[in-house]
Amino acid sequence: MLNHLSFNTPVGRLAPSPTGAQHVGNARTYLLAWLSIRSRSGRLILRIEDIDSPRVKAGAAQQAIDDLRWLGLDWDEGPDIGGANAPFVQTERIDSYREALARLQRDERVYPCTCTRTDIESAASAPHVEHEGPIYPGICANRSASDAAKLGDQPFAWRFRTTDQPYRFNDRVAGSQEANVRHALGDFVVGKMDGSPAYQLAVVCDDHAMGVTEVLRGNDLLPSTFRQLELYNAFGWTPPTFAHAPLVIGPDGRRLAKRHGDTRLATLRQQGVAAQELIGLLAWSCGLRPTREPIAARELVAEFDLCRVTREPFVFSVGQVFNLSGQA
Question: By residue range, what is the domain housing residue 143?
Answer without folding.
Answer: 93-203
